[in-house]
Amino acid sequence: TMIAIIALVAVVGLMLGVWALTRPEKNENAKTITVTIAHKDGTDQTYSWQTEADTLAEAMNEKKLLGEDMDGMYLTVDGETADYSVDQSWWCLYKNGESAVEGANTMKIADGDDFRWVYTIG
Q: SS3 for the chain, per residue?
């Protein structure tokens, strides 16, 4: 039984060593954000991920959620294009439940931020 105890301790020690060497490092710059896109058809698509990006645009570009940047105004979000010249549609952006006062290119993000893009007509 003493040999079994020694073997068990050795296996546990080996497993702890492997875990210590392979565990993911905690990144102090990482932030978890949530982005919800309210599409024209009334459906919502929600994404949540961890990022080291500084701005919302950088974070969303990691996930390929933005496209067609025209003078700082995104026309395509999550594959859906809003074109004001066609039907007066545009993307309204909210940060933590409040209407955003800046665009995604300059909007700084922090851990726990919640963003919402709403396809808006008029």
A: CHHHHHHHHHHHHHHHHHHHHHCCCCCCCCEEEEEEEECCCCCEEEEEEEECCCEHHHHHHHCCCEEEEECCEEEEECCEECCHHHHCEEEEEEECCEECCCCCCCCECCCCCEEEEEEEEC
Side-chain-side CA neighbours of 23 within 13 Å: the count stands at 9
Distance CA 113, CA 101 (A): 15
Which residue in 71, 94, 91 sits closest to 82, CA to CA?
Answer: 91
| pLDDT (tens place) for every residue of the chain, 122 residues total | 788 888 788 887 788 777 777 766 556 779 999 999 999 999 999 999 999 999 999 999 999 999 876 665 668 999 999 988 888 899 999 999 999 999 898 999 999 999 999 999 98
Residues pairing with 55 in the sheet:
108
pTM metric for this prediction? 0.74
